[in-house]
Amino acid sequence: MINTIAIESSGLVDNVRFGHLKITCLNSSIYFNNGFDSLGNFRRGITVAQFDKKNEYIITYKTFDTHSDSNESVNLISYLKTVNRNTLCAFAVVDECTLHLSKESVKYLNEQFGLDLSKLFFRSSYVGLATKYNKTVFFESTGTDIIKNKYSFFSPTNNDTDDTDNVNVQLINTTGLINNDILSWNNIKKQFGVSQIVFQDHEDTLKPNFIIALTGQSNSQGWNAFYDENNVNDQNDDRIFGWNATTSEWEKADMLTESLGQFFYRKKGWQSLAFHFAKCLVEGYPNIRPGIINLGVGGQSISRWVKYNEGETWYDFNKSRSVNGNQGDIFDLHVNMINNAMENIKELKSNIDVICWHQGESDGYYIDPIYYLDSLNKVINQYRQLLLCTNTTPFIVGETTGAEYGSNKGWEARNIELRSLNRDSDVFTKCIYSSDLPHGVDDLIHFSAEGQRKMGSRYFRAFRSMFDKI
Q1: Are 327 and 306 in contact, with CB atoms under 8 Å apart?
Q2: Beta-carbon neighbour count of residue 12 at 10 Å?
């Protein structure tokens, strides 16, 4: 049985003077409309709702008006101290809660639930779902408009085996969960959870311990999709790093700097699917510190990555499509960047964890599909033959936009070959479904900012699925 917990929140928005709040689960709900609860009482501030052990009922809730009363921050902490260990709680704001939300309250919520209310601003909307003490955060969002979030739990039914009876599912093997995940039952381990990725950790918190190498043409660089200062998903994270090839340093990843790629190849403020992949990693794993090594160039054929030897089938054709006959020059540039970045952390980290590829549009017109598929597989092998990689280094690709979805013509023609990575015998190659994602308003070939964000989460899920058997 699936039980979905959904939470909505709004501050002061158009046509909703005092905002509203909604928390629903399988068998109960709370709803504040225009600042008033179902009994006609005016409510403002932050509401905390506690669920029963099966997460099917809201057993109690209370609202703390931390906007108008400084004592309410003290009362909020006192109330949270009465919450039992591992209890699932929902948090939502109606109208405004920031004026007297004390630093002590923010600290307690972070230490006991793993939530971060430190960035809330006046009349922010806010939702969060988390458990006390073990600090499993199922989702947390803030914003200036109405925000909605939901999470689905899988609960055992009477038809399930005894192994799944009376399991408080959100407390078992929850590392690796991100927003909108559904827990699944592992019959071997006899527990609910999601697949657990494997990475090489180290103790230097100022350097990455998980490496994402990103390359491709314009969509890999976030072309014509821009950073939004008001979108929480675009904001920096202290645990996400990027290699700045201009300064030759690992820096905090920032779409506005060259930490996510030199401005010679991408413009300031362009989006990054690898950044949103990294956001999912830090959401799911408390000790992970992703580092992004990005180099891609818009409008380029795969000939600028792949290298054929003289005598091989596609040697002459590939050479003719290359710049000045120099096959694989972008691949060489990326490898040089990877080597420099990894040299900086050679005492701490010795491998690339995943390679993300987004390319194909420039090979969509009048190109032999066998040439592209052969070249794609050859590029995968070229990366895997690097000393920093292995024969099983994950390689993930994405479909092009779906402006002509279903036709497989034009720039979308190579989606057929890209999808073939899901049908081959290599479990460490994947193609994500992305042709359904939004593109620019007047730009059919490039994904929008929201498309880039969703694409990053799909790359993450494709990567995590590679560890299903572990």
Answers
A1: yes
A2: 15
Instruction: Kindly report, residue by residue over 358-414, the tens digit of the pLDDT.
Output: 999 999 988 999 999 999 999 999 999 999 999 999 999 999 998 766 678 889 999
In angstroms, the Cα distances linking 436 to 32, 220, 231, 454 are 35, 17, 22, 10
Q: How many domains does the chain have?
A: 2
Do 132 and 240 share a domain, yes or no?
no
Query: Band of the pLDDT at 121, cuts 50, 70, 90?
Result: confident
413 and 296 co-located in one domain: yes
Distance CA 320, CA 8 (A): 56
Task: Give the burial string for 114-130 (b: 16+ CB within 10 Å, else e).
Answer: bbebeebeebbbbbbbb
My answer on whether 152 and 221 are in the same domain is: no
Both tokens of residue 109? 């919520």
Cα separations in angstroms, 37 against 41, 75, 142, 368: 5, 20, 22, 64
Give the pair of three-digit tokens for residue 69.
């009363």
DSSP per residue, 228-264: -TT-GGGS--TT-EEEETTTTEEEE--TTSGGGS-TT
220 and 153 part of one domain: no
pLDDT value for 183: 64
Query: Which SS3 state, helix, strand or coil, does residue 363 take?
Result: helix
**Residues spanned by the domain of 377:** 210-465
Torsion of CA 457, 193, 92, 145, to 10 degrees: 10
Which CATH number covers residue 347?
Answer: 3.40.50.1110
Q: How far is CA 79 from the centre of its chain?
A: 33
Nearest-angstrom CA–CA distance, 260 and 237:
13
Inside any domain, residue 190? no
Q: How confident is the model at residue 11 (pLDDT cuts 50, 70, 90)?
A: confident
Could you tell me if residue 194 is inside a domain?
Answer: no
Whether residue 301 lies inside any domain: the answer is yes
Length of the chain: 470
State the greatest distance between any 2 C-alpha atoms of the chain, in Å, as a whole number: 82
Q: What three-state secondary structure class fits 417? A: helix
Examine the domain organization and report whether 438 and 294 are in the same domain. Answer: yes
CA distance 466 to 470: 9
